Amino acid sequence: MCAIVGIYGNDNAARLASIALFAMQHRGQEATGISSSCDGKIYTKKDRGLVSEVFTEKALSYLKGNMAIGHNRYSTAGGDSILDAQPVYAKYKLGEISIVHNGNLINKDEVRQELIDKGAIFQTGMDTENLIHLIAKNTKDRLRDRIKEALNRTIGAYCFIVQSRSKQFVIRDRYGIRPLSLGKLKSGGYIVASETCAFDLVGADFIRDVKPGEMLIFDENRTEPESIQLFESEFRPCAFEYVYFARPDSVIDGKNVYRTRENMGRALAVNDEGKDLKVDMVIPVPDSGVPAALGYAAQSGIPFEYGIIRNHYVGRTFIEPTQEMRDLKVRMKLSPMKSLIEGKSLLVIDDSIVRGTTSKRIVKILKEAGAKEVHFRVASPEIKFPCYYGIDTPHKEELISNNMDKDEVCKYIEADSLEYLSVEDLVDAIGNDRNYALESFNGDYFVKA
């Protein structure tokens, strides 16, 4: 779920990279970093914390040059050490190199052990460092050829940006699981970013999505990036990007995220038609439940209300490491509008249920605020399987829908009724013109180690 960005051919590269990372802060709040290249040297600044905290004027003045790559960290592999922040930098035979990565390499342990057996010394717990070692140990004369051979040993979901002292190499895996888009900066040069919402903030025009299996090479000797199709495309974009991860104003692989979420809500309303369901208002769990709730209200004719107010200075809850911290963050993050909901029957819409504890807490605070009934609707299918492609969903045993059926979950969260979106309705809502990565819902682990 991390955010990555690459800026090439602009004298304010690092500053633009920091602005793009700010726009994509929702994809990771653990740590952030930028590497720039200038006069044959790579400069790197990374630290724990938010983009606005790390990239001060002093930090940006250090990051010189007309090319830069950046990263917001949301951990799936690795620990919380600052060494596990990105970009990952190294010196090797061909010079200096820095890499950012969004995704997860499912054969990381096997490759890492092989590299250790051959004498490699790892400094981080990240799968991203595997690529550094594979490139460094290769004997090819050109970096592009080293990258190609390294990727032949790299299995999983990945978007990489590899920066040398004078070039950038942008790679998306053959499945296109994680998003990556290319834009042209109005102030000169190019941008590559995980989400198109970054383009709006830096002043860039969308060109196209990076193709699955494609490598783009930015070189000072070319006016446009060179495109090489490394692998045959087997396009399987992640459905969870549309459910939860992406900002609603982003366009992911040609699909407007806001509209897809609105469609999910409409599908939930259609499924409730004909039921003896009497509710006074539709309430979203902010913020990711808002478009679906608006879609439900528009389809059903039931009034939409902001019955829960969110404190935007509290981060996302399901990625917190302990249950105690998740509970505390829910209380800090969500406050019910007592005067609005007291004595009313509510239809509450959230994007997903992972462990169930957040949903249980939401139902509880609404009923404590005087809600007569709370009917819970989920704008995605039941999450029954962990994802190994870049989402930090927990072990199978921690997923509530792996252990309980719908009625049992409803009883656990203490809702008056509970309904999910079906897999078929989710695909229809996003657009059934392509094959999606749905492993969290159906257990189809199509990328094999």
What does this structure look like?
The structure is a single chain. This protein is of the alpha+beta class and 449 residues long. Helices cover 31% and strands 25% of the residues. It contains 17 helices and 21 strands. The protein has helices at residues 13-23, 51-54, 57-62, 108-117, 128-137, 143-151, 197-202, 240-245, 257-272, 290-300, 323-333, 338-341, 357-368, 400-403, 406-413, 423-430, 439-442, and strands at residues 3-8, 31-38, 41-48, 67-73, 88-92, 95-105, 156-163, 167-172, 181-185, 190-193, 204-209, 214-219, 226-229, 251-252, 255-256, 281-284, 308-310, 334-336, 345-350, 373-378, 417-420. Strands 3-2-4-1-10-9-11 form a seven-stranded antiparallel β-sheet. Strands 5-6-7-8-12-13 form a six-stranded antiparallel β-sheet. Strands 16-19-20-21 form a four-stranded parallel β-sheet, sandwiched between helices. α5 crosses α6 (143-151), α9 packs across α10 and α9 crosses α16. The longest helix has 16 residues, at 257-272. The radius of gyration is 22 Å and the shape is elongated. GO terms for molecular function: amidophosphoribosyltransferase activity; magnesium ion binding. Catalyzes the formation of phosphoribosylamine from phosphoribosylpyrophosphate (PRPP) and glutamine. InterPro entries: GATase_2_dom (IPR017932), Ntn_hydrolases_N (IPR029055), PRTase-like (IPR029057), PRTase_dom (IPR000836), PurF (IPR005854), PurF_N (IPR035584). In the C-terminal section; belongs to the purine/pyrimidine phosphoribosyltransferase family. Pathway: Purine metabolism; IMP biosynthesis via de novo pathway; N(1)-(5-phospho-D-ribosyl)glycinamide from 5-phospho-alpha-D-ribose 1-diphosphate: step 1/2.
